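Q: What structure does this chain adopt?
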Amino acid sequence: MISTSASGRFAVVLLSIAVALALAAPALAAAKGQKSPAAAAESKDPNHWFQKGALCATYGNNPAAIRYFGKAIALDPGHSGALFSQGVSHGQLGNYTRAVADISRAIEMEPQNGLYYYGRGRTYLLAGEKDKAVQDFRKAADLGDEDARAYLAGAK
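A:
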């Protein structure tokens, strides 16, 4: 049986090895011609940033989501999903003017996307602009959005 002091020393040695490997990882990666974790974080794939933004938004971290959606948009200005999602995150933070602007740009890119009209309508509703919200909900419902249809059915 290992004495407590021996197992304690063993744990310290393992921890020291783990720390040394973590500190040496960027240098080892560079020597092998691989990207370091920091370089990998600067992905040039807009979908990488879109997915990170979506995860942040899912957990309510809208400021971080907006940053990541912004990176996706910078890499692909035609990424309507990133524009829409960035707008929704702005709306969650109460930045309704910016939210409507972003979502409207997404709608210009994909005018047949009912979800985008529903999202802008929801933002208008949060901003206290019910008439504009209902217009967008009607358009979204016409395009097949079930949430818009449910809202309109409940509003009667």
